[in-house]
Q: What sequence folds into this?
């Protein structure tokens, strides 16, 4: 595990412990299961879809344009995004669970809570705030910890996006999702040591993508040509954050990305 991921996992575990002291697991679970039911994935990825991400800042790229998370989420949905990802990690990304609550209240598409989860209580916290799914980073979890988090997601009827960074991660994730409904596979091409993107990783791991469920290309997506590149490799969705946070018209960029992906999908079929 890279130093960056190790630090993120350590901070996440500390936040989970603080949460458990304030609101025990049973209380959090009860609150999560009492919330309105999560929005389903539906036909996500059947053609080609975009997960549009909200993050106030990035350790690799600094602070993004200041825009209310609700305004950003509404713009993404207007552009046609089928899912909105919200960073909840506070120390490096400036996110919060309250951002999930705010965005979830103004959009109708599924909301993904994106963090470095280490404990099931964090899944229940995200669900109570209105998240419909959670990110699960395989690299920071051993098998029992991953199973516990995925069990909590299933308990809440949430979907999970399982993220891989290399071939070993992808093989492990593919095995897990084959036995888990309501899951997606993500391939993140950001180098965990330098935090720079390595687009070739999408290429290198493409032959290891499972036929099902939907595979999502993460990072290094800046415009339509990048979407065409990963669609040609078999990815059926992209997760885009930085490019959408930088542009003045995120709705237009989302629409352009979707058009490129679906145009390529139509040609391929």
A:
């Amino acid at each position: 595990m890279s130093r960056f991921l190790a630090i993120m996992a350590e901070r996440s575990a500390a936040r989970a412990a603080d949460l458990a002291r304030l609101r025990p697991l049973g209380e959090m679970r009860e609150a999560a299961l009492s919330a309105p039911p999560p929005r389903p994935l539906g036909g996500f990825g059947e053609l080609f879809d975009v997960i549009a991400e909200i993050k106030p800042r990035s350790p690799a790229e600094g602070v993004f344009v200041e825009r209310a998370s609700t305004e950003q989420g509404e713009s993404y949905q207007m552009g046609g995004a089928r899912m909105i990802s919200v960073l909840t990690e506070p120390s490096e990304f400036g996110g919060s669970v309250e951002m999930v609550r705010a965005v979830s209240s103004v959009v109708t598409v599924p909301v993904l809570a994106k963090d470095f989860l280490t404990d099931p209580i964090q899944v229940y916290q995200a669900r109570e705030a209105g998240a419909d799914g959670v990110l699960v980073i395989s690299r920071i979890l051993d098998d029992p910890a991953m199973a516990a988090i995925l069990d909590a997601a299933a308990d809440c009827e949430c979907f999970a996006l399982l993220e891989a960074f290399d071939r070993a991660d992808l093989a492990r994730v593919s095995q897990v999702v084959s036995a888990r409904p309501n899951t997606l596979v993500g391939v993140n091409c950001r180098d965990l040591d330098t935090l720079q993107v390595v687009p070739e990783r999408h290429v290198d791991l493409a032959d290891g993508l499972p036929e099902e469920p939907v595979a999502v290309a993460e990072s290094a997506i800046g415009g339509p040509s990048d979407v065409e590149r990963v669609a040609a490799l078999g990815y059926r969705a992209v997760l885009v954050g930085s490019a959408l946070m930088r542009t003045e018209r995120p709705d237009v960029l989302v629409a352009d990305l979707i058009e490129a992906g679906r145009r390529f999908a139509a040609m391929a079929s």
